[in-house]
Amino acid sequence: MAQFTFTNNTYAGEALAGFMASTLLEADSVKRGLLTVINDVKSRKVILDVDDDVILQNPSGIFADQGTTAQQTESYLDPVVYEFMKQEQWDKLAQSWEAQALKPGAFMDYEGIVDLSDFMVQRYLTKIQIANERLYWLGKGATKEAAFTAAFPGLLPSISAASGVYKVDLSKPATSMAATAIDATGIVTVTDTSKLADGDVVTITAVTGTSKDTTNGASGAPNVQGQSYFIKIASSTTFKLVRNYNEVNTRKPATFSGTATAATASFINASNVLSVLAGIYAQLDPADRSQADFNLQIPLHVGYAYAQAQADKAVNVLNAFTDSKKMDYLGLPLQLMNHWQANTILGARSSNLFLGVDLLGDASELSTVYMKPYTNDNVVRMKARMKAAVNFKFANELFYLSA
């Protein structure tokens, strides 16, 4: 039976003035219009498109068809159904600071304190929305909250795997470096750390060895391959992997097992972000870039690097290091993504990225029932049910940079 547990509980009987929880980054891709939302997707939804060429011909008194064939193609939104279910027994609150807030009568110990009940419901809803945001973009494999069995690849992995997408990597010397070792504490050895700084985010690839990330427990620990980390410089030739970027909302310190004898560390930071953006700008399709709904979507750490680079480049500018920095590049909007893959930049029109849901509000609805009147069980049950599918339409209109 799920019950509240208490750590370092030093007093019982006096109601606490309020409740606190660790801060969370908002999930807001839909609010910002970065995805085209299609509602009422209960089963497969077909997205159709049709196109043809135009040929300017010689004049003719007799009609002569230009001889091309109009092409119709289709892609799909196949919704995946998943749920959140939580059962709570509230009577242990009698041992907590909330005892005096309980109503008279022993059975009332099972009914939750209104303020705490509302607080917990909102907390669960926020985390459900964050889990959905991760799921939409990163897919089930990179969303630790996702434990359902159905496949859900996510937009970024699908785009990365698709043929026709314009793809760029970070293999250049200015954005990557070879590592000769990763030890069991997360210390990475390289030739020179002068291009890096405390707080930079590196993505580890091309790993040789047995290095695993045990941040969320040793059982089923993922390989360090493909993971991204905030770092701290340890010496002129070493840096420490401090926190997994995917733990941005929990701030858990990264822990490891095993070692590696070789790897590649890729990064976008203040030292190279301007050249990275310049290279991206030059490679974007002009037809896409000129559309009103085109955005470059960047992870938070790249946005911070860009702000730092702007301040560093400012000459004789008052308040260069105190004023907020505009997030665009040569007039091109840069969207800071709260739940995103590190060292990854996507150029896309929102009308080319689709999110199919049964009802958008499903992610904000949590059904709660106190079971005693129905089953005589003194528990509260909370449940949410969602359907979602993501896809893109035109692969050749997407730009994708990653490690």
Note down, in words, how this protein is organized:
It comes from Mucilaginibacter pineti. This is Phage major capsid protein, HK97 family. 16% of the residues lie in helices and 30% in strands. A hairpin with a 4-residue loop joins strand 10 and strand 11. It has helices at residues 114-138, 155-161, 273-283, 286-289, 300-313, 372-375; strands spanning 36-38, 45-51, 71-77, 80-88, 166-169, 176-182, 187-190, 201-209, 212-213, 228-233, 238-244, 256-257, 260-267, 294-299, 328-329, 332-337, 345-349, 353-357, 367-370, 380-392, 399-402. It has a six-stranded mixed sheet with strand order 5-21-17-14-16-15, with helices on both faces. The chain has six helices and 21 strands. The model has no long low-confidence stretch (mean pLDDT 88). By secondary structure, the chain is of the alpha+beta class. It folds into two domains: 22-54 and 72-172 and 268-403; 176-267, Elongation Factor Tu (Ef-tu), domain 3.
